[in-house]
Amino acid sequence: MPIVVDDQLLSAAQRGDGKALSHLVEVCQPDVRRYVRRHCAAADAEDAMQESLIILFRRAPSLRSAGALGSWLFQVVRRECQRLARKMFRQDVPLDEVVERQYLSSRVDVELRLDIATSIQSLPDIYREVIVLRDFEELTVREIGLRLGLVPETVKTRIRRGRQLIREHLLA
């Protein structure tokens, strides 16, 4: 569905009328939000929407016609989604981690907390113990090693393996 904007509103926005600019952003926001949700990673959706609306606010005075607004704005949104995706991939984030972030960011907080608690409970004792000490009691690797009588390398390995098992359980 194309964005429908009154020519008078766009004209006022082009003249720099602050109220008209704000109203223009308000009118376009639902369509931008819908487009962003379809074309951006879940973790990037809000950022892409905000950046796109900021660009609209800044560049509205240079728009030629209300008819061109929709296609121009969707190009802006598409470029923002691509820019944020490139930024994520430039950080050398593995693809499975990107998928994992998208999945976990789409979960409701309460539901995710319950799933994490269940995942931790499902861990073998040797992994659960170090995960609880590290992530909940916030002990250092050295402190965990002293408490459990383990060398730091063993503690690190168990933490890594425990977190990996939690991740696998959550994504299963």
Provide a concise account of the structure shown.
The protein has helices at residues 7-14, 18-39, 45-59, 66-90, 95-105, 109-121, 125-136, 141-148, 152-171. The protein is an all-alpha fold and 172 residues long.
Report on this structure.
By secondary structure, the protein is mostly helical. The chain has two domains: 7-90, RNA polymerase sigma factor, region 2, helix turn helix motif (Rna Polymerase Sigma Factor, Chain: A); 107-171, Arc Repressor Mutant, subunit A (Orthogonal Bundle). Helices cover 78% and strands 0% of the residues.
Enter the CATH topology name of the largest domain. Answer: Rna Polymerase Sigma Factor, Chain: A
Query: So what's the oligomer here?
Result: single chain
Supply the number of helical segments: 9
Proportion of beta-strand residues? under 5%
From the helix content, strand content and strand pairing, which structural class follows?
mainly alpha
Quickly name the level 1 CATH class of the largest domain: Mainly Alpha
Total number of beta strands: 0
Task: Identify low-pLDDT runs.
Answer: none
How many structural domains does the protein architecture include?
A: 2
Instruction: Note the run of SSEs as H and E.
Output: HHHHHHHHH
Largest sheet: none
Return Rg in Å. Answer: 24 Å
* Fraction in helix: over 70%
Average pLDDT, rounded to a whole number, is: 80
Outline type: rod-shaped
- The second-level CATH architecture of the largest domain is Orthogonal Bundle
CA distance, first residue to last residue:
37 Å
